[in-house]
Amino acid sequence: MHVVPKTTTSVPGLRERKKQATRNAIAEAAVRLAAEHGVENVTVEAISDAAGVSPRTFFNYFPSHDDAFVLIDGEIGERIRESVRRTPADRTPLDAVREAFVAELDGFEDRQELWALQSKVFQRSPHLIQRGLNAHVADERALAATLAEWLDATRPAGAEGTGEAGIYPRLLAAVSHTALRVAFEHGCDHPEDTVLADAFQEAFVHLARGLPRPTE
Question: What is the pLDDT of residue 74?
């Protein structure tokens, strides 16, 4: 018999939401300034001034100058993981992650310009790519751990658990992130006729079918 996983994460309070908003404002200011002037020409003071905070506040949110250019909407990963935790046991694992990502992608076009600017910043400043990769890997591993917990909590009675280090949850997390990247790149290449959430859904249709050769 399936069980519904317990939800342990609460909705962020007002204080936490304000902190998230400040962090996002600093990151957005950093990316916009870097896209216009280049990372090497943007100081912590300039970022802080554009975000309406003090340099001391900047370092309360980011350990170093370069970290501010890497994370945009840093709380998205936790919202996706929380969505997975709340997924009913009768959903397939693929549906669990697809639905969690799609919930975040709805209306993403409003933020797409900022993400495109960040990509531009990375292209001009290759030293930031490793920082971005490290953040991506950490987020992917966190999703894999959440998926492992959900799989164990919702498995049929007597079925063997996956374990946090199992290949399946890590592969599922990696595939989901790859589908998002492919959908985003497709949207950047075809901005006039692409809705990111739809492109991501299409990627998961192919995955669910086992990636057979397209008929069209």
Answer: 64
Mean pLDDT in order along the chain per 10 residues (216 residues): 42 77 91 93 96 95 90 78 94 93 76 79 85 86 94 77 72 92 81 79 89 80
What is the C-alpha to C-alpha distance for residues 122 and 191, in angstroms, rounded to an integer?
Answer: 20
* Cα–Cα dist 99/210, whole Å: 18
What pLDDT sits at residue 159?
A: 63
> In the chain, what's the furthest Cα-to-Cα distance?
60
Q: End-to-end CA distance of the chain: give it in Å, rounded.
A: 41
Sort 213 into a burial class: Cβ within 10 Å, 0-12 / 13-18 / 19+: exposed
Q: How far is CA 83 from CA 75, 102, 111, 163, 190, in A?
A: 13, 10, 21, 20, 29
Query: Taking the domains of the chain in order of start, what are their residue ranges?
Result: 14-208
Which long-range contacts (C-beta less than 8 Å, at least 24 apart) are formed by 177-186? 177/136, 177/139, 177/140, 177/143, 179/101, 179/203, 179/204, 179/207, 180/101, 180/105, 184/115
Q: What's the confidence (pLDDT) of residue 161? A: 58
Q: State which fold the 14-208 domain adopts.
A: Tetracycline Repressor; domain 2 (1.10.357)
